Amino acid sequence: MSRGRDSLDGSVPLAARARAVQPFHVMRLLARAHELEAAGRSIIHLEVGEPDFATPEPILAAGQRALAAGLTHYTPAAGLAELRRAIAGHYGRRYGVDLGPEHILVAPGASGALQLVFSALLEPGDRVMIGDPSYPCYRQVLRLLGAEPLSVPVGADSDFQLTAERAERAWSPGVRALVVASPANPTGSVLDARALADLHALCRERGAALIVDEIYQGLVYRVPDVTALALGLDDLYVINSFSKYFGMTGWRLGWVAGSVESIQVMDRLSQNLFIAANTPAQHAALAAFEPETLAILESRRLAFETRRDFLLPALRELGFRIPNRPDGAFYLYAGLPERVREDSMAFVTRLLEEVGVAVTPGHDFGDHAAGRHLRFAYTRDLDPLAEAVERIASFMERL
Amino acid sequence: MSRGRDSLDGSVPLAARARAVQPFHVMRLLARAHELEAAGRSIIHLEVGEPDFATPEPILAAGQRALAAGLTHYTPAAGLAELRRAIAGHYGRRYGVDLGPEHILVAPGASGALQLVFSALLEPGDRVMIGDPSYPCYRQVLRLLGAEPLSVPVGADSDFQLTAERAERAWSPGVRALVVASPANPTGSVLDARALADLHALCRERGAALIVDEIYQGLVYRVPDVTALALGLDDLYVINSFSKYFGMTGWRLGWVAGSVESIQVMDRLSQNLFIAANTPAQHAALAAFEPETLAILESRRLAFETRRDFLLPALRELGFRIPNRPDGAFYLYAGLPERVREDSMAFVTRLLEEVGVAVTPGHDFGDHAAGRHLRFAYTRDLDPLAEAVERIASFMERL
Ligand SMILES: Cc1ncc(COP(=O)(O)O)c(C=O)c1O
Ligand SMILES: Cc1ncc(COP(=O)(O)O)c(C=O)c1O
């Protein structure tokens, strides 16, 4: 390919909806962080949205066994029957929810699961209510599918979550679904059973579906670990994944729970969009629910809790505003101290350049007060966290 | 979940475009085949669209090493830099095409790659020309994205391929892209360098993009192994995958080659739709281009060639119409013998029930003469193939 060819000799422009997908700011920061590291600088990464832990040993071992056995062909689009049963069984054992495997469809990550639910539910032009801030892919994928995200600003007063009351006020014609995450990214906030029930009741009353993203399920600290599935499956879709609690981000394995009819439709969508999820990953994930694995996961959960209990007061001490204690995931969504006048984007850039701490600006998660917020991910151990706090402190002193 | 809940208590209907995605007929056949097998019947599976071979040993070993090393975190959305380099290098070594890694984006299968290319290129309402018959997911995924497949009947006279001449005749306003596969599913037919160049010239003249699905690349028998990338990358997208030639179907790993600008846009789409492809699979695939692996793949290619050379004359002998020798993939697309009056759907159902041979009816690949065609996949070894031919012969005698 000659150099000239790389650029725009082509006559077919790319689609506007594709070009409208903006890069995440954190990607530019990450690239810069890697440059600084290559130049010998020490960088502490608090921008990373995945556990620092590798996948637990029993899952790795099961994956290796699957490979040794040559289990490398396509699986059914809805996933291995044993895995669907294992996931359904997990809801029974851990959450007391009685659910058959026909309600579970295995997907390539919660990412794939979200795409399936959105595709199954939405016609072009349908509106979907989401909180602002929230996980950025919701609105991007919705737009790619021709649906319209209806972003509703949510603040510390509602723990950065859509409440039934707030959703009701913001309701508008054409809203066909509402998406919440619990625990949430970027805020770590958790919806309790009551808040979920109220949202579900509102949705049912308005003829909309409730989509609950439970990808951080299990990563909760001193609050009840709940699932929206306790509410049944009428107009309710639950998204989940082996990525976070189970430490399997790179394996690309998640699932969706829904009514049998919706699972059948999503099965056919999946045949066309994905064929199926990764086969060795599915065999490996069978080991995710073994007692030995669950013990490892529990100790990791406690490690995250300890980190949160260290980082939260330390950041507050430095003037960051985190009014309510975030009870889940591995994120703290912090308001910039009053006296900081610059935008969060400028702030995180300087923080990285000057003291080598990488965090994510609020802009990646929406527009509402995004310039005043940062996301800290405690996906690093206590020592680097302590070092990060010292570096941030020295940076703040110089402001 | 109580039984009543499983059905349609919910008030939110699924989207029409999702419900319009029809199940593949082969899925019903497969389910029936499994039932028969469970009841003790012997079934020969010639409906399976993936190699019977497991993934080659060196790739399995590399995957196991990746797991042992805990390489289980997310990769960049465009794929591991080493893998992008290895794929680009493969084009240089094998096809004499000089291509940088910035032209390659790793995706979750050719499936993921197709979705990215379609999403990057198409606005709602755009038309995309495809041959009928062709791989069914093209038209389903296009419709999900709001684009309009323009199916052009192609027959044995053009080797079941869109030619420039035929495409020109069928051209209509709003055609923004044209999709061909070479070698093709379901026909095994191969486009030579000249045919590709003519299609590309036509597309460029008309301001459309050419999308070439090369997923069966390498699986060609006594004809040149070519790539459309020899034509450059102006308005050209090449889809490929580790699934077929490399024997990695269940790993869900493919790629797309395109202009740098398009790769950058698809990178951002991928961040949102997929996050990335499976990590252990990407590390494993680095071993796909090693001499040891390539030697295994070459011996498998020869095995497929031997099977084709057995099955093609045997089916012709039985009266199936396969005018031109299919030169690639592992499929024979056969016209029913004149004297068979029933539809291919009825024929394959009886073939399965009466003599335990499973093949795919033409209906899964389009509408054009679908009732008169079957797809035989030679993804079984010579012994079962010979047994299948005997069973089909005895079935035909009784017709
Ligand atoms: C809230 C939320 N949902 C979904 C995802 C997608 O994760 P995956 O596709 O790895 O399951 C993420 C990943 O960060 C997330 O934070
Ligand atoms: C022509 C063609 N393209 C694309 C695919 C998708 O394959 P994968 O997603 O496994 O790479 C297939 C699978 O059968 C195919 O036959």
Report what the structure shows.
With 399 residues, chain A is α/β, with parallel strands linked by helices. Chain A has two domains: 16-54 and 293-398, Aspartate Aminotransferase, domain 1, CATH 3.90.1150.10; 73-290, Aspartate Aminotransferase, domain 2, CATH 3.40.640. Helix content of chain A is 42%, strand content 14%. Chain A has 14 helices and twelve strands. Chain A has helices at 3-6, 16-19, 25-38, 57-68, 81-95, 109-121, 137-144, 164-170, 193-206, 260-273, 279-285, 291-317, 344-355, 382-398; strands spanning 44-45, 104-107, 127-132, 148-153, 175-181, 209-213, 236-241, 254-257, 331-335, 357-358, 360-361, 373-377. The first copy, chain A, has a seven-stranded mixed beta sheet with strand order 2-8-7-6-5-3-4, sandwiched between helices. In chain A, strands 9-12-11 form a three-stranded antiparallel beta sheet. A two-stranded parallel ribbon of chain A has the order 1-10. In chain A, helix 9 (193-206) links the parallel strand 5 and strand 6 (209-213). In chain A, helix 3 (25-38) runs parallel beside helix 13 (344-355) and helix 6 crosses helix 7. The longest helix of chain A is centred in the last third of the chain and has 27 residues, at 291-317. Chain A is globular, with a radius of gyration of 21 Å. The termini of chain A are far apart. At the A-B interface, helix 2, helix 4, helix 6, helix 7 and helix 10 of A face helix 2, helix 4, helix 6, helix 7 and helix 10 of B. Bound molecules: pyridoxal-5'-phosphate (PLP) (2 copies). One pyridoxal-5'-phosphate (PLP) binds at residues 49, 109-111, 135, 181, 185, 213, 215, 241, 243, 249, 254 of chain B.
